[in-house]
Amino acid sequence: AAQIEAEKIKAASDKAAADLSAAQSEAERLKAASDKVQSEASAEFEAMRTELEQYKQDLSAAKQEMQAASDKAAADLSAAQSEAERLKAASDKAAEDLSAAQIEAENIKAASDKAAADLSAARSEVE
To answer: Cα 49 from chain centroid?
Structure first.
């Protein structure tokens, strides 16, 4: 009876050892699968981080380009306004000069008309 009991214990011990070995194999398989998933996730995270960094750099470059274009547009507008003001001043001066020339022409015409009238009066007196 003791021998039968010993054989039962031995069989139970062998089964427990086999179960332990199977559990260790499963744990190793799960650890390998976990390591693989972690490695893939880490690689994917690194790829996303790199892509995000590139996006940030592209965004920064685009902001700088937009700022440069805005600054150039502002400078061009300022230059155009200055040129428009210069042309307006030249136009105003030309209008003043024209007005003065017209007044001078009217004065010359009046003087010429008076000289013609004086000459005509002098001729009449001579006759």
So the answer is: 23
Question: Dihedral sign, CA of 44, 50, 51, 53?
Answer: positive
Q: Residue 116 and residue 122: Cα distance in Å, rounded?
A: 10
Cα(86)–Cα(93) distance, integer angstroms: 11
Q: What is the distance between the alpha carbons of residues 5 and 103, in angstroms, rounded to a whole number?
A: 143
Tokens representing 103 are 């007044």
What is the per-residue pLDDT for 127? Answer: 76
CA distances from 111 to 64, 97, 100, 115, 123 (A): 70, 21, 16, 6, 18
Determine the pLDDT at residue 126: 84
pTM above the 0.85 mark?
no
